Amino acid sequence: MSKKIFAANWKMHKTPQQAAEFAKNFLTKVKDDFFNHNEVMIFPQNFSLAAIATEFKNSKVQYGPQQIHTELKGAFTGENSLELAQAIGAQICLIGHSERRQFFHEDHTAINKKVKLCLEKNITPILCFGETLEDRQSNQTFDVCFKQLDEALTNIDTSKRLVLAYEPVWAIGTGQVATSDQVKEVHEKVFQKMQSSSFKNFQILYGGSVKADNAKELIGIPHVDGFLIGGASLEVDSFLRICYL
Ligand code: 13P
Q: Which superfamily, per CATH, for 4-243?
């Protein structure tokens, strides 16, 4: 059985100093044996990635950027390079978060390129997908999720590790967590789809208003391999309450 994954997406929060304080505090509180059965992934805002790298360098905590450019280097003012993130120790990368798709018009071609780039560089992509409320209300949940996955995973090396994160857009930052039945249905179908597409090494996270009090039920659902957590990952204690369910 694969390890459970607890991933923190800090979005546009935390100064480098606050990020370093979080890391120090987290490492004093988490027990070494926790990592025998679990993985911890941190996605800080880019200005704080170096501070996180310094603090977590000799630990089992993985870290990486929330978004990268499709090219590794060049004249792309303001963009983030995967190669530069890797140079400071990044092992993971978030791709295709709904906020990137919605506010920054990240399209499927770019998302597919970014997944490929990560796999080429041996960085584990955490690929987000999920439907809007409108999609769900018009019974399009599976069509939309499958389309996003098909597009993002076109011509991908199926032998490499891939982490998927099901994040229904309507559950993000709203306090409105998906019901167990809704999560179960999507995770089950996505698991089957990935298996039938020959992917061998993948996990599926759930994200969207995860808190300690709803996480216990969600983690018991088949094919829920962990969480991608926004708001509740910003404080060490609330993040740890989810990690130690
Ligand atoms: P919240 O946990 O704040 O709903 O955010 C979820 C999310 O977008 C993680 O990527």
A: Aldolase class I (3.20.20.70)
